[in-house]
Amino acid sequence: MSKIKRLGCALVLIGITAVMVRSQNKADEYVTPAEAVPTGKAPKMQVQLLNPGEATKQYAVIFYQGDEAYSGLQEFAEKYHVTSAHFTAIGALNGATVGWFDPQRKMYKKIPINGQHEVIGMSGDIALYQGKPVVHTHMVVGGPDGTTRGGHVLEAYVSPTLEVMVTVDPVTMRKRLDPETNLTLIDPALK
Amino acid sequence: MRWKQIEDAPKTFVLIFETGDEIANALQQFAKGQGLAGSSFKAIGALSYARLGWFNWATKKYDPACVLDEQVELLSLIGDIALRDGEPQVHAHVVVGRSDGTAHGGHLLEARVRPTCELVLTESPVHLQKKYDPKSGIALIQV
């Protein structure tokens, strides 16, 4: 083999390796919207019904140190058979991942939030997709200098507490898969 | 600050703040006056001054995350009220937007309104209690 050919082979190999590493990184940095939420990651979560006897239910869902709130909210929704709800929350966390929806890839780009942050505002809703409740929530977090970041919540490790005030409606709201975005979107007309 | 009860079940209030009103203090006074013990609220508006905190896990205190002595939009104020030793305690977080659209936020320490702040508050019949948490050094809601 001539020197040039050998050099060519080496360059191709380097190229393939680089592409493989790059695509691996990409797989880590993006998450598909349909990824299932693992439950059981918020063992300290506490729930209290605030207005017994009313059709529209108000709950306080409180998380404590180390609870993963997104998984906890999913657990709350399943356990309390929530079919339509909306909520707001404040608190603080230590470590989180939020997502930014990339319309080209139809996936969430993962944005890591490291260290202690205030959960300045979290709002979200719960609706059914294929009979199962789906929690959709966004948050803005603030760091020690007051600068903010935010996004679609993928995971949030509570520290020391997160206070979620949930209103559960006595109706059912359903989601349908939107092929254009690969997202499940709420369709109020869906029966 | 002016307020009006707009619904009985759930008990819902609208609070309208005016130029010069300080939100944290006025809310605390309102909560005391109405005997609020299990509330959640949200608001939008604009401010001439904001002092926001960040919970410092090492010192167990709120550090002043930022002080903005300028006109900002109050993009989001979310909070709740629970009892601590029988007294209502207001807990609220704020995001503000500056003139260039960048956002700052934190735990509400002080916020002076200009020209308005519109707040909707829902009070529940069941009370929420806070208890001192030795690990974090602050009182957390216990349910």
Strand content of chain A: over 45%
Low-pLDDT segments of chain A: 19-25
Give the structural class of chain B.
mainly beta
Q: What oligomeric state best describes the polypeptide chains here?
A: heterodimer
Please report the two chains with the greatest interface, counting residues with C-beta closer than 8 angstroms to the partner's C-beta.
A-B, 41 and 41 residues
Q: How would you characterize the largest beta sheet of chain B? A: 9 strands, mixed
Radius of gyration over C-alpha positions of chain B, nearest whole angstrom: 15 Å
Largest sheet of chain A: 7 strands, antiparallel
Share in β-strands of chain B: over 45%
> pLDDT below 50 for ≥5 consecutive residues: which ranges of chain B?
none
Helix segment tally of chain A: 2
- Helical percentage of chain A: 10-25%
Shape of chain B: flat
Strand and helix order of chain A: HEEEHEEEEEE
Molecular shape of chain A: globular
Account of the protein in words:
The complex is a heterodimer of chains A (191) and B (143). Chain A contains two helices and nine strands, in the order H-E-E-E-H-E-E-E-E-E-E. Chain A is of the alpha+beta class. In chain A, the strands form two sheets. In chain A, strands 1, 2, 3, 4, 5, 6 and 7 form a seven-stranded antiparallel sheet that branches. Chain A has a two-stranded antiparallel ribbon with strand order 8-9. The radius of gyration of chain A is 21 Å and the shape is globular. Mean pLDDT of chain A is 89; it is low at 19-25. Chain B has one helix at 23-34, and strands at residues 2-7, 11-18, 38-56, 61-68, 72-84, 87-97, 103-123, 129-133, 138-142. The model of chain B has no long low-confidence stretch (mean pLDDT 94).
Core attributes:
heterodimer; A: 191 residues; alpha+beta; 7-stranded antiparallel β-sheet; two-stranded antiparallel ribbon; 9 strands; B: 143 residues; 9-stranded mixed β-sheet; flat
